[in-house]
């Protein structure tokens, strides 16, 4: 059995074992479940932090080297334009699918949830605020590269790296060759580290899933059965659309791409973190045949602008809360909400539980009780599993598609 398949099955085993252990703790030792969850969750925290440790240097080194090696600034602009067109189109499609299906299925009208204690939402409500152009600009333009590195602000690192790479490419190959070679070595060394860190993934998956099952138990699925059913049906529709477009562009190579990214998809699903698979996704897309320069340019942008699963969830959850409270929103108002979500979501990448923060802000703008976020908090972790995995698929398809359009996809 190949090493890659061993890791895949190890993660599957850890996922099943985590569910079983979490269920046993929840039913047999209910008094200890909080303490157990707190301690076992550290395994997931270790894995996530190991990954976060290498994201900033990996983005910086690969992106600078990729742009400096391009040499042609027109190519940078061309690739960037194609990527942004994909991101905007995919975001609008994702938001629209969520809007259409939540209006058709109407989970908020048939789900019986008590509108009582909303204290669990107080932290998210207090952290959310309306869209501000000032905040948007501050989130994109770094005040300090070191601050961006320290806080893992991928978008700010991308802005600096693009400018630095363009400056290097304009200085002459002989003059900057040592710098590019040094950064290239750093990038390859970090990718080597990825191979080591990935073997911690089964422990991370085991810790993350057993903690959430121990805390919530299986009864939560009965209460939220309709909401979960409708949401994952909407995700399935989004996957069908993405895969159809992917097949139209990549042909039968789409199946090879899915085989390559099966581990990143599974890890994102288990840990609810698409960020956790960023380094592994870089590696697998390059093995698939995507040009390394295009991968290092598009993928970091995608993590800020192309979160398809999260986008769909925003319209779905926002209208669901409105339905629970019996608020009838006209179609025109819903379309305005869609456009607002499209805009505000681009300035909040990297914020913890970003989707929920954006939903709260949108609800406040459209007179939907923001405390309603408490109604979906208990099940949000399981929804996050699906949307994180969808985010990874969307970014993998975007990178592969642009590589194909540029004639840079090797067999």
Automatic annotation (TrEMBL):
Location(s), subcellular: Cell membrane
Name of this protein: Na+/H+-dicarboxylate symporter
GO cellular component: plasma membrane
Species the sequence originates in: Epilithonimonas xixisoli
InterPro entries in the cross-refs: Na-dicarboxylate_symporter (IPR001991), Na:dicarbo_symporter_sf (IPR036458)
Membrane recorded as keyword: yes
Membrane topology listed for this record: Multi-pass membrane protein
An annotated Gene Ontology molecular function: symporter activity
Membrane-traversing stretches: 46-71, 83-105, 154-172, 193-214, 226-250, 331-349, 356-379
BP terms from Gene Ontology: dicarboxylic acid transport
UniProt KW keywords: Cell membrane, Membrane, Symport, Transmembrane, Transmembrane helix, Transport
